[in-house]
Design a protein that fits this description.
single chain; alpha/beta; five-stranded parallel beta sheet
């Protein structure tokens, strides 16, 4: 099918990702002018005719908040330019941890972000590894939820798996980590923790056997790295011979990289849903590229094909499970 009516726009949050997706699809990025007024407000202008096109706007919404504002302004500009459909491609969906009202007088930030994106003009959303799957229900428009596992697992393609174990860093991540362990054909263990304060965690129990194992700890995001470094230490205390941390969204705020670098964790494998170039602060970090997966999904959405095929285990993974 012709791709002539497909149009790609990238915001400033992750231009490299946008350029890689465009290269995979052999489509140019649309010419968009992003400027600022003297008071700092963002101004957007689409410099090409997009009437009747199928537009994909690529912009992760990690901090600062200007990334989400820029996405909303681009969506509004595209909608008002009479495109046929606009899809917000959000490799990292920010505010996803605020997915419920767990205290009095607090917002549900994830729901608010979903409402803003929809009201700005998005007809569809494409994202990767939401922090809480129920966030899909916050959107009143179709949402395609991709999983990073097919890409992250490539890092372990040549690793012996008979002595491997996969560890969930907390009880809330068990379902996602179980699927990851199944793809690796490895047993599952769980770190039971409690969180006395925001961005603080205490390991309470270790469930499972990792003695003599090469452990992979999988989580959807690393923020301050407090939880993940404690989980890594708990694995070594339980007899693990090595620990590799694997995560989709590397926020790496505060002292995260210093914590990871000084920890006994051997390797940190992350995706590029959030740009990362601070390798000198933690040489343990390895980055896997998600642009091919996103480009494949964009092509399928444009051609009105199913994206569920992207979730199926590869033949090699089936052989390992």
């Amino acid at each position: 099918m012709s791709m002539n009516k497909l149009a790609l726009i990238t915001g400033n949050a992750h231009k490299v990702m946008g350029e890689k997706i465009a290269e995979h699809l052999d489509q140019p990025l649309l010419d968009v002018e992003v400027s600022r007024f003297s008071d700092g407000e963002i101004n957007i202008k689409i410099l090409e005719n997009i009437r009747g096109t199928d537009v994909f706007v690529i912009q992760p919404t990690f901090p600062p908040a200007e990334n989400i504002i820029e996405l909303l302004l681009i969506l509004d500009a595209v909608r008002r330019a009479s495109c046929r459909r606009v899809t917000a491609v959000i490799p990292y969906f920010g505010y996803a941890r605020q997915d419920r009202k767990d205290q009095p007088r607090v917002p549900i930030g994830a729901r608010l972000m979903a409402n803003l994106i929809t009201q700005a003009g998005a007809n569809r959303v494409l994202t990767i590894d939401l922090h809480a799957p129920q966030i899909q229900g916050f959107f009143d428009i179709p949402l395609d939820h991709l999983y990073s596992a097919p890409v992250l697992l490539k890092h372990f393609a040549d690793s012996p798996r008979e002595n491997m174990a996969v560890v969930a860093p907390d009880v809330g991540s068990i379902k996602m980590v179980r699927a990851f362990a199944k793809r690796l054909g490895a047993p599952l263990a769980i770190v039971d923790k409690r969180r006395p304060r925001e961005n603080e965690a205490e390991v309470m129990n270790f469930i499972g056997d990792v003695a003599g194992k090469e452990v992979v700890i999988f989580d959807d995001m690393i923020d301050t790295a407090g939880t993940i470094t404690q989980a890594g230490q708990a694995c070594f205390d339980a007899g693990a011979v090595s620990v590799t941390v694997c995560c989709t969204h590397p926020l790496f705020s505060g002292q995260a990289l210093a914590r990871l670098d000084s920890s006994p964790i051997n390797e940190v494998v992350v995706s590029n849903t959030i740009p990362f170039n601070r390798f000198e602060e933690c040489p343990k970090v390895k980055v896997m590229d998600m642009s091919g997966l996103l480009a494949d999904a964009i092509g399928r959405i444009h051609r009105e094909e199913t994206v569920s095929k992207l979730f199926l285990p590869s033949r090699a993974e089936k052989g390992a499970s």
